[in-house]
Amino acid sequence: AMPQTAHTLHLDIVSVDSLLDCAGSPLVAPHLHPEAAAMLLSKADQASRFATLQIEFTVPAADLGRTQEVREATVAQFSRTQDEAHRQLRTIFRNGRVAAATGLLFIVVLLGAVQAVVQLTSLNLVKAISESLTIFAWVAMWRPAELLLYEHWPVRRKRRLARRLAQAEVVLVDTAAQSAG
After folding, report:
1. How far apart are CA 55 and CA 138, in angstroms?
2. Which of 39, 12, 37, 34 is nearest to 22 (CA)?
3. For the whole model, what pTM was predicted?
4. Rounded to whole angstroms, how far apart are CA atoms 111 and 89?
5. Per-residue pLDDT of the chain (181 residues; tens, 9 = 90+)
6. Which end of the chain has less neighbouring CB within 10 Å, N or C?
7. Strand order in the sheet with 6-12
8. Distance between the two ends of the chain, CA-based, in angstroms?
């Protein structure tokens, strides 16, 4: 087993109030400012997959007692992000299955038409048309293949990062102590 190393994600913030800014948000659940959440996802993406994450917010001294509040908002934020990514994955695979079924049906019909056309005559024009229909039939499978083979990877990555961030230790550090050190 690989030794667990810790990776600290530093974020300097103006205040806990600005970090938990809910102005304009209809959500009752605690959450982080979208910019801070996006920055944490980006920083987590840079960390080793095997490192445990720690989130360190540099805040004014007056905010140091609000660790629990920030921790709850962080867990809630990234749990929601993880759930959202999970729903996205289900949608991608559902759309992929529907597109694959549609594409396969289309291939069967087109290739049947190609066979019928080829048996009617052996003119070069007919051969060209049949080759074109064959290519068109396989192009119809492009989107299902893209969905089922590739599109889910970035969403899986985001879900994994969100899970790691939801489990991360959250620490508040004094701005003045940070700049003195």
Report:
1. 48
2. 34
3. 0.79
4. 32
5. 555 688 999 999 999 999 997 666 777 778 899 999 999 999 999 999 889 999 999 999 999 999 999 999 999 999 999 999 999 999 999 999 999 999 899 888 888 887 877 777 767 777 787 788 888 888 888 889 898 899 999 999 999 999 999 999 999 999 887 655 5
6. N
7. 6-12, 52-59, 169-174
8. 35
